[in-house]
């Protein structure tokens, strides 16, 4: 399906440029990008120079940031223009945002005045907003046109647009009035006026809407693209589904990082320097130590009990680990369900009931198995065995209920459930399990 | 943008059915579905009966499984046919798979012989395979046609297809030869033969490919749809991006569940019964207790040390919690990077170096802050303070390195990194931190 790297190297060694050129300009863009990234600088530049203008720009937008930078430093001014001329505006803005100053200057030099203005305007949209995600390459129509006239306009504008499947109908002051799908233009009578076939029920977002919200709208309505308007409902751009796919992955990465108590970041792990990686982790490690202070205090309060029955110490790690795991199972399930909008705050009593049921089952099974292990296999006294298993069961039950409700409360308080739940669940469960442990112990052992 | 529920109820009370009908048939399908789900059974059936045939079927495919079931039990046979007739085949197959037997019988009764055969064939594809995800509603063309003739055929076939933006060019034996985008058909000279404008570089998948692989192909090539072929490369269906968006969310949910040591499931939390929820959690809680056995054993080996210096006990939870958190930060970052294909096994030395750097920074900061707290604020002896902080630092370093490399090793061994890493990291870090703690303690305290 795609050209072999070895074959390509043979062709390069044989200086069979015609064959190479013929091959690579007919390959799929992401495959060419992959090939170019695998070759060393000399070869990749050579290959790159054989690509036609449009393919070159598209391949460029597919290679990694690090390689883009290397490339832009290698090429001459004319080639730089060839590259950036055909880039979509949103890709160019991303490039300007992330390249070093000397390269930015070079890139902006290849743009005309009008484009430079647009780039500056784009740079002002907040990161993660619809405005920073949109492209301005779209097809606008007037409602007075016929289907045939619209198709003519699309043909005229068409080739360079990121998507031509949807056209946007606007007034003279650029206010969004309706949308029309290419398929409807093709399927309808060619003399029909746009006005009569467009959909007036337009789903749109504002430039300042958050990208997570935009993604949820895409999912709800199964969209391929969405118009972006300003505060006067004037059409300023569109967002296409390929960018939304990336947003969905990024948001999922953020959620996963937050659940593991790491400050989320969009940078590739291997590209990030160790000081930034350390900074992203240290904050939450420190916060999570708050719980450690509590457990230390509780243990020192029960110093006498610990001195007289050292065996009590042996089960502390097991009790705390199991409580922690049981709690994070519940909180992870609930946090994910909140993200997917399957659970809301009003379901809190259903969640409590469910977790009560689940934790009873899980707690009883774990308690029985542990009793068997501690009493029969390890040979501890019946009293110690009872203390440990009773604590285990209560800890699991509390951990699951607290793990289930805290994310919902965090959400209700407009805090991020993934950030807030984890440290609080740990602190509450750790503290509770130790207090219960020693209460039961002092009661049964009469110490 | 959409009709208010209260307004609708007023209209229902006033029996203004004409107004209701007019309104709901012009609303966006997902909004109608949302409205119907919020109303009680009598009202929702009433509203549903006012929808025209195609809208009714589309609305139906948007409501939740639980409500679909309720609906199918409420409607009469004729209405059931109205509903299921217009469903896409893939949606109908999903319905047959998940509804109770009595309803399945009813649904199959509304299908003709040919469709029943197709449904049975679909049911044989493995769950999570491309075959079970595809739809058979697509446009096939022959390469001898012209652009104009193709557009005619699309017009004729078009209305009921899930996507008409891409047509598939096949031979007389249905072998896939090429694809052509609707936009190219529109933009090209209408007398041009398909043969000359189609792309022969077709990206396709096999019916038995896993849906996760299909999703990765969509992302790599920014596709809106992909053809699915059998082992003879005959075209049997297509997969569209809306279904892939759902796959991406499901796969992310699975990963998140696995990282929290829960057996993944696709069922909504609130819809799942407590025994299944318990089963999904108990297995890993039991596995994770293996580490608890080790820690118990180590602690009992150092019974004497614990007896003579009880204060050593107070810091055990803090050391183990911090080690656990530090390890899961590293393993989560690496697991996610593996999923996103940013890191491979060959990067293992880079990861070790990075984690060594990060953990040194994090370890030193945590150790210093803890020394200040333990020695100056809590007033423990210099020896105890040193033992605890040295152990803390070594634990954090080991946790991060083990957390960083274990997922890569799991991946290399073709095991799921998310499943394997977490219990192993905990076991190794817990065991190691206690051994180090008591080695240092016995050395410094000479006990």
From TrEMBL, chains A, B:
Entry keywords, A to Z: CBS domain, Cell membrane, Magnesium, Membrane, Metal-binding, Transmembrane, Transmembrane helix, Transport
Segments crossing the lipid bilayer = 282-302, 356-376, 382-406, 418-440
The record describes its membrane topology as: Multi-pass membrane protein
InterPro entries hit by this protein: CBS_dom, CBS_dom_sf, Mg_transptr_MgtE_intracell_dom, MgtE_N_sf, MgtE_transporter, SLC41_membr_dom, SLC41_membr_dom_sf
Instruction: Tell me the SMART domains matching this sequence.
Output: CBS, MgtE_N
UniProt-listed PROSITE patterns: CBS
Q: Which family does it belong to?
A: Belongs to the SLC41A transporter family.
Protein role? Acts as a magnesium transporter.
Record-given protein name:
Magnesium transporter MgtE
**Which species expresses this protein natively?**
Senegalia massiliensis
């Amino acid at each position: 399906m795609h050209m072999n790297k070895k074959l390509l190297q043979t062709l390069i060694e044989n200086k069979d440029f015609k064959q190479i050129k013929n091959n690579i300009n007919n390959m799929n863009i992401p495959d060419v990008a992959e090939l170019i990234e695998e070759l060393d600088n000399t070869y990749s530049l050579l290959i790159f120079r054989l690509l036609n203008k449009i393919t070159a720009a598209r391949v460029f937008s597919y290679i990694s940031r690090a390689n883009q930078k290397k490339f832009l430093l290698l090429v001459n001014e004319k080639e730089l223009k060839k590259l950036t001329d055909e880039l979509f505006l949103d890709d160019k803005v991303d490039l300007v945002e992330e390249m070093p100053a000397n390269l930015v200057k070079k890139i902006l030099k290849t743009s005309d005045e009008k484009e430079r203005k647009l780039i500056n305007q784009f740079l002002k949209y907040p990161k993660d907003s619809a405005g920073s995600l949109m492209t301005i390459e779209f097809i606008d129509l007037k409602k007075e046109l016929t289907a045939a006239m619209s198709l003519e306009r699309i043909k005229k504008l068409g080739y360079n647009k990121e998507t031509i499947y949807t056209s946007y109908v606007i007034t003279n002051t650029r206010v969004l009035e309706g949308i029309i799908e290419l398929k409807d233009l093709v399927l309808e009578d060619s003399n029909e006026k746009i006005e009569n076939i467009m959909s007036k029920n337009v789903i749109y977002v504002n430039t300042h809407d958050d990208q997570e919200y935009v993604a949820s709208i895409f999912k709800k309505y199964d969209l391929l693209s969405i118009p972006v308007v300003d505060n006067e409902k004037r059409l300023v751009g569109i967002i296409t589904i390929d960018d939304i796919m990336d947003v969905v992955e990024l948001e999922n990465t953020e959620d996963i990082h937050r659940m593991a108590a790491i400050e989320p970041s969009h940078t590739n792990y291997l590209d990030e320097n160790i000081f930034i990686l350390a900074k992203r982790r240290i904050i939450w490690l420190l916060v999570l130590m708050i719980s450690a202070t509590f457990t230390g205090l509780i243990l020192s309060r029960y110093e006498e009990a610990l001195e007289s029955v050292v065996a009590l110490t042996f089960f502390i790690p097991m009790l705390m680990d199991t409580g922690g795991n049981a709690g994070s199972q519940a909180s992870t399930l609930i946090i994910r369900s909140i993200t997917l909008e399957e659970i809301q705050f009003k379901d809190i009593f259903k969640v409590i009931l469910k977790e009560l049921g689940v934790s009873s089952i899980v707690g009883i099974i774990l308690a029985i198995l542990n009793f068997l292990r501690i009493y029969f296999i390890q040979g501890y006294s019946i009293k110690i065995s009872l203390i440990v298993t009773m604590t285990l069961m209560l800890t699991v039950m509390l951990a699951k209920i607290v793990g289930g409700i805290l994310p919902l409360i965090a959400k209700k308080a407009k805090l991020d459930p993934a950030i807030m739940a984890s440290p609080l669940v740990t602190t509450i469960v750790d503290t509770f399990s130790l207090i219960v442990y020693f209460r039961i112990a002092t009661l049964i052992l009469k110490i």
